[in-house]
Amino acid sequence: MTREEIRLIITKYSSYVYGICLNFTKNPADAENLTQETFISAYTHPPLEDERLYKAYLGKIAVNKCKDHLKSAYMRRVRLDSESKAISQKQSVSGLPEKSLMEKESLRNIKHEILSLKEPYRMVAILYFLKEKSVSEISGILGRPPNTVSTQLFRARNILKEKLSKGKGD
Q1: What would the pLDDT profile of 95-133 be if each residue is shown by its tens digit?
Q2: Mind listing the domains of the chain with CATH numbers?
């Protein structure tokens, strides 16, 4: 593949790939980085013989890059830190310090249990409970049928109930 061909592909599909990345990350800087990673990954792999497949090919790479990014230890740590700060700011305004501390610990335990779920339940639970997405939004993000998302959410909820009830009994 020549440099000119690469430039044409990047020019043609960069906004498409960026849109996918922004939809997943909700962060323009992360979306830009993931867009670049997508094109680098596409460049380092063998070129497609049919140019009509580039859009789907780049879209799939972008989705996988975003999923990997969101599952990374760095993102879990950053998300939990920012959510903990937001929760503590809300709670510092209202309530007693003891109650606030207990609620904070309870929320931390719930988030920990959600993040410890195995796939396919983890991503569904994160999007539903932490990101407050609807089943139809999750279906669109993950590319799964709504019924599948509902079933996975039901199972994730049952697993979480079981884990959290065991934690209270100890």
Answers
A1: 556 666 666 777 787 888 888 888 888 888 888 888 888
A2: 3-71 (1.10.1740), 73-169 (1.10.10.10)
